[in-house]
Inverse folding.
DNA sequence: CCTGGAAATGTTATATTATAACATTCCGCC
DNA sequence: GGCGGAATGTTATAATATAACATTTCCAGG
């Protein structure tokens, strides 16, 4: 093993909360790169604004509200207004690059863009971070239940609020 | 079997969407009666206002927004204002008599008050009705998943949007 | 009964979230 | 270069939710 190899990092895809000290730039870079590829493949335009909003949302693993995004944009884009943000996130959500967390009125980067999946979010009420999981057991169960009910599900969402492992053991939430 | 027995009605508890022609007064009466009992047992006060708001929410199986409730209240309670409604629904939600549907900013009567359960709601985007189901498979799956993630869930919610059986077969949504 | 104090409701004002409507700019395409 | 649709800018307003303080209601205890 070379001592200069890149440090290990658990992938950010679907494995729950990441360690506090993880190299978050890799999360951001991977997300932006993935988004570029997906949008190119779909012939939709990941414009500068949309890319920047995606980057802001990926700024951390804490969901970001529309007006928080707006505030961040204002410094660099004087004309930014609510529709600026809402239109960008509408695009990002439609492309499956971002999830809207209904119970928070906030947005978080999707950990599985381009893969069909049910959004399953664990939201820590201590540190505020949200982790997306993609457990096929849950998707299967949902499919069975809706089928049993004769319900044709178009989209569904699972949101759980509680304490992540770190915050349970009394770690500093920040 | 006596010919004068009450007509059969599928219980409203956890069985999905009810038939169009079901005797909805029985849903309402059962819900209000159950609420009285629960509140008495818990020594909390189901005041006139709270009872009335619960009755309004149970007015149909379509989720009701806070300002729709307010509009209905205004005719009978001149001083009604947003806090009137929000405080009443806060109580009803805290007592588990009503669920808030985050994706709609609306409220619907709980089909399983007093029973510990995960809110699982199927929302028809054609007729607007919401059906609560209580499938133990889903609760179990959620428990396993959160446990695997080391997450201590405090509450969680499942919301699915799609088409109920009636609306799939082209029935008049109303 | 009366009454102290907490809970509930009334009342006014405002914060937060989201969208409508129309103008302008951008950008690929011819 | 200029046509046309998509994206963004701009202004205004709608829809949802809460803060803060005043008043009323309701009991439990005297
Ligand atoms: Zn990260
Ligand atoms: Zn996702
Ligand atoms: Zn009914
Ligand atoms: Zn319920």
């Amino acid at each position: 093993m070379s001592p200069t190899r890149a440090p290990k990092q658990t992938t950010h895809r679907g494995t729950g909360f990441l360690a506090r000290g993880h190299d978050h730039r890799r999360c951001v870079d991977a997300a932006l790169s993935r988004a570029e590829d997906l949008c190119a493949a779909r012939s939709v335009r990941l414009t500068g604004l949309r890319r920047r909003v995606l980057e802001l949302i990926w700024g951390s693993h804490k969901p970001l509200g529309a007006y928080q995004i707006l505030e961040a944009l204002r410094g660099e884009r004087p004309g930014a207004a609510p529709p600026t943000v809402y239109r960008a996130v509408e695009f990002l959500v439609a492309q499956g690059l971002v999830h809207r967390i209904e119970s928070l009125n906030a947005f978080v980067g999707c950990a599985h863009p381009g893969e069909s999946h049910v959004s399953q979010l664990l939201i820590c009420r201590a540190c505020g971070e949200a982790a997306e999981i993609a457990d096929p057991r849950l998707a299967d169960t949902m499919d069975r239940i809706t089928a049993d009910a004769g319900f044709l599900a178009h989209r569904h969402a699972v949101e759980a609020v509680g304490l992540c492992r770190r915050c349970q053991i009394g770690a500093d939430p920040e």
In short: Residues B 12, 18, 22, 24, 27, 61 surround zinc ion (ligand 3) (CB under 6 Å). The mean pLDDT of chain A is 90.
